Every structure is written in structure tokens, then in C-alpha cells.
Amino acid sequence: MRRQIVAGNWKMNNDLAQTQTLITDLKQQTKTSKAEVKIAPAFTNLWSAFEATKETDIEVVAQTMHFADNGAFTGEVSASMLKSIGVKTVILGHSERRTYFNESDEDLAKKVNAALAHDMEIIFCIGEVLEDRAAGREEAVVAAQIKNALFHLEGEAFKTIVLAYEPVWAIGTGETASPEQAQDMHAFIRNTLASKYGDTVANTVPVLYGGSVKPSNAKEIFSKPDVDGGLIGGASLKAEDFYAIVNAF
Ligand SMILES: O=C[C@H](O)COP(=O)(O)O
């Protein structure tokens, strides 16, 4: 059985006090599923979040990082800096990073390499915009994102890579891909991996769904055979809602 993962991407929300309050609330929730739980606070709150979750099964992850180890990259944070405070997982390729910060497939391939060089796990995001889906090219777009940023890797690398399919038109919009649309794309993602790395890799890599997942729709989405969990934005900012999703398996 594949790993089940529910990761909360807090994006640019929660200052230090709010981070501490939310973690206190999260610690009061009860987990009834086997899903791994991860939260991604802002950089400024990673250390505090890491300390506050030490005795729990909540893993603190980063929302992005730079591909260089150090140097003249004002405003950036490197894999070694994240590792130095205990962060072992990073989200890469989120559509907001691609759109607002111009992260290209080429940049992402370098970030993937840097994360792997530091033995970090990666939650790698892919997904099409509305125009792509309207034009029927969503599979081509997603396949290209995977190939351009990941297909230079050896199959072994996929032991520490999780994919997150996030149709951009469903992020923060309240609109969700139907469970069938999610399943179809997740199956396509596995086929894409299988074409290069074979069935073992394709069937082992967890593929999460992201895009307006809520307590009310999580169960149906997670019931699909190729959906291994979720990358949750808005609903991860309330402890009860987040754990309702965690427990939707
Ligand atoms: O990283 C999370 C996704 O962008 C989903 O965000 P959302 O749940 O607010 O739609």
C-alpha cells in the first residue's frame, strides 16, 4: 500500500503568534487515519513550528527553496539552511511559485537536484491552467512539467518524491476537480512515470490532489484508487477542518 499524506500549505498566512495558536489547536486534534500529516508555514515561522511539533507526528515542511547552497541571492533560502533547522521536506513547483515568481521547469529541475543532494523529500506540484483544460491539453501540460523537471533523474530518486496534482483552476477558487477528473489525471501521471521508470516506480510514488479540498469533499476524492492524499491550502488554516480532511481516509 502506498503512503497516504495530507499536507497543509499555509502559503503567506499566519504570523508567529497565529502559527503557535494553530499548532496548539492542531495538537488537540485526534488522528484516526494512517495519513502522514505535514504543515508548511512561512519561512519566518519554520523554526518555531519545528520546535512546537517536536513531540508530535506532524512534520514541518518548507514551501520553496533556492537551488544554490549559498551566495548572492537576496531574499532566498537554501536546502542547507532548511536542513540546519530540521526541515527535511520541501514543496517545489507550486503553481503560485511558477506564476508569480516565474519559476521555470529549468529552475525546478535545479531545485529538485539541490533537494535530493541534501537528502530532502520533495512534494513536487504539477497542474494545468483553465485554458489548457478548455483546449484539451491538460495531459500534455502535466506530462511536460513532469518530464522537464524530473525525467533527468534515476528511478531511485523517486523514493523521496511525492507528486501533487493541482489543477490551477481549482486552487482557492472553491471549484474542485471532480473525483473522476482527479482520478483520470492521477492515473495519467502514473502512466507517464511508468513510461520512463516502469511500473514499480509508478505504483509507489504517492500522488496527492490539491485544489479546494474541504472536509465535505475529501472523502470522495481520497476514495479514488490513484489519489494518495491532498495538498491543502485554505482548509489547512483551521485545525478542525484540516483534521477532518486528514481523517477522511
Ligand atoms: O497548496 C495548496 C493548493 O494550492 C490548494 O489550495 P486551496 O486548498 O486553497 O485551493
UniProtKB/TrEMBL annotation:
Residues reported to bind substrate: 9-11, 172, 212, 233-234
PROSITE patterns recorded: TIM_1, TIM_2
Enzyme class, UniProt record, top EC level: isomerase
Keywords, comma-separated and alphabetical: Cytoplasm, Gluconeogenesis, Glycolysis, Isomerase
EC code(s) of this entry: 5.3.1.1
InterPro entries: Aldolase_TIM, TIM_sf, TrioseP_Isoase_bac/euk, Triosephosphate_isomerase, Triosephosphate_isomerase_AS
Pathway per the UniProt entry: Carbohydrate biosynthesis; gluconeogenesis; Carbohydrate degradation; glycolysis; D-glyceraldehyde 3-phosphate from glycerone phosphate: step 1/1
Active-site annotation: 94, 166
Pfam families reported in the protein's UniProt record: TIM
GO function term, MF aspect, one: triose-phosphate isomerase activity
Any GO BP: glyceraldehyde-3-phosphate biosynthetic process
Entry annotated with the keyword Electron transport: no
Primary localisation category: cytoplasm
Keyword Cytoplasm: yes
Record's catalysed reaction(s): D-glyceraldehyde 3-phosphate = dihydroxyacetone phosphate
Protein localization: Cytoplasm
GO cellular component: cytosol
Subunit: Homodimer.
Biological role: Involved in the gluconeogenesis. Catalyzes stereospecifically the conversion of dihydroxyacetone phosphate (DHAP) to D-glyceraldehyde-3-phosphate (G3P).
Family to which this protein belongs: Belongs to the triosephosphate isomerase family.
Name used for this protein in its record: Triosephosphate isomerase
Species in which this protein is naturally found: Mangrovimonas yunxiaonensis
